[in-house]
Structures are given as structure tokens and as C-alpha cells.
Design brief:
mainly alpha; 2 strands; 62% helix
Length: 368
Amino acid sequence: MAHFSTLKFPSNRSDFFTTLNKRVNEYFKSNDISRHANTQMRIKTIFMFSLYFAPYALILGGVFSSIWVMYLLWAIMGLGMAGIGLSIMHDANHGAYSTKPWVNNLLGFSMNLVGGSAFNWKVQHNVLHHTYTNVHEADEDISPRGVLRMCPSSDWKFMHRFQHLYAWFLYGLMTFMWIVVKDYARITHYHKEGLVKKQKADIRTEWAILIATKAFNLFYVVILPIILLPVAWWHILIGFFIMHYVAGFILAIIFQPAHVIDGTEFPLPDDNGQLENSWAIHQLLTTTNFANNSTFFSWYVGGLNFQVEHHLFPNVCHVHYKKISKIVKETAKEFGLPYKSQPTFAHAVWHHAKLLKELGKPPVHMTA
């Protein structure tokens, strides 16, 4: 298997993407619309931060004496955390929120505010996932996953027979594992792979930011409530875990069906690291939309149910995805290319589960 640094797409330009890009640019120009955030997006930004910090203020203020109400407030914080990630951090770290880099950097840093690492996320998501979507050992979203087998090229283990059953429990641990283990492992790995240098970043600075922001998050979310509230410390830890479990589960079940779903493709390069299709066509083959007619769902998940549009135009704010989706769909049809979409979120989750079960079966060469 070729190392991700040697992977390459065909050098010939894609007529499909040239045409599509021209049409999307014309849409924004003719309608005199900015590709970035609008008033609707700015209102949503305030709402998502409030959904996270308002329950926190109620917890810290000891407004409710019931421990069960406090647990509920932690769960609402989880909804807010996922909302910040899906609707604010995501656009900002793609440079899609504003024309001003400092605004994108500031709002992208909300990832650190809730315990993660914006730097790690940009490398893992923007560089690896968006470039090499569904390519084994290049896209970290699908490999290696250990207890979960998300790609036909990944090693099979006996436990994978049951992954369509236990995966749902593990999904809730996603953000918790990020803050406890993965962020430290990732920054170490990215430094060894030369990815930190490629981002023109200083590893000492990034380590300092990582440690400082994680310490700050731990202080205001865990230590401060333990100090100020007249409840046992373990109640705070349970609440903290509830918050992360809610956020992790939401994020996982939104991101996974977009690429790990029945009918998607997992392209492999040839011996020279050459992938078969141009980058844009590669995105169409490896990406699936879902629930595109659900207004509220699309609003909450930051338009990431329009995953095809997001992968083709990651620098466009998600509030515009529904409009440009018509252009993308028509252009794909014109060029005889697939435009993969599931009618509802339930359909997407079901087909994701089907693929999990299929990938859980031992490969043919092991049963022959």
C-alpha cells in the first residue's frame, strides 16, 4: 500500500469539476451572494454557543438542586458541543465562515475551547480526509480503527463479526477519546510524518497550545464545578462523561453515514500511488448525502447532510449547500456521474449499519 505522501490523482483536469466550479461561481456572482456566513449563520453561532454555555452557567450557579436536572443540563451541553463542532468550528477551520482569516482562526479555536485540538483536526480532516477520502491508510476516518473495521482493506478480526451491534456504544466515546488519548497521539504522529512542518507550524508551539487549552478546559468544566458545587465530585465526572457521550454519539452518527455506507466506494491506488479518478470524481464516488429535505435537521448538523457539496466546495459556508446542491446534482447527471443520496437520516443510518455488518464478515480469502 502506498504511503499517503506518494498518493496522487490523475494530472489531467476534470471537465466535470471545471464546469461545476464555473457554474457555482456564477451562482454566487449573479445573485450577489457571499460564499461565507450570512445573518442566519451569525444567529446560529450565538445560539450554539448559548446551547453550550447557558446550561454550564446554570450548573455552576447551582440553580437546580436535583442531581438529575444537573445531569440533564450536562446532556444539553453535549448538544451544544456537537452543535459548535458541526456548525461553527467546522466551517471556520475550513476558512468558510469569513473572508477574514482571524475570524476563521478565532471561531475555529472553539474546538480547543470544548477540549479538542483545532490544529490536529485541520490536519486529520482538511488535509487527509478531504484529500484522500475513503482511501485505506490515508483517510484516518476509516483506518486504522482497531475494534471497528470501516474499510474492506483493513485487517479483519473475529470481534468485527459483531461490530454492527457494538459500534453504536463506541460512537459515544469519540470526543472523550479525543481529549484523553487521541489528540496527544495524533500530534506526535503528525510530527513524525512531517505533517506539522508541511502546515508551517512549530511543534513546540502546537504542544504548548494543546496542553494549555486542555488544562483550561479541564479547569472550567470539571475542577471549578467540583470546587463550587455542594455535590460529590463523582457527580461532576458523571456529568462530564454524559456531555461527551452525547456530543460524541451525535458527531459520529452524522459523519459516518456520509462515507461508510452501503453503496460507497473505497478506491485503492496502483503500485505507483496513482488513484484512478480525478479528485472531484473521487469525491462523488466516496460521499453520500442524506435527509436533504429536512430543514431543521440540516440546520442543526451544519449542512453536513449535504456532504457531497461540502467535499466539493469545503470553502463555502454550509448555509449555501442546499442552493448549490441543485447545480451539483444536475452537473453530475450531465456528465454521467453518480450523485449518491439517501432520502432520510434513518435510511442513511440503516445503510451504514448494513455496511458495518458486511465489513464484519471475514474476507473471502479467509473463508476459502
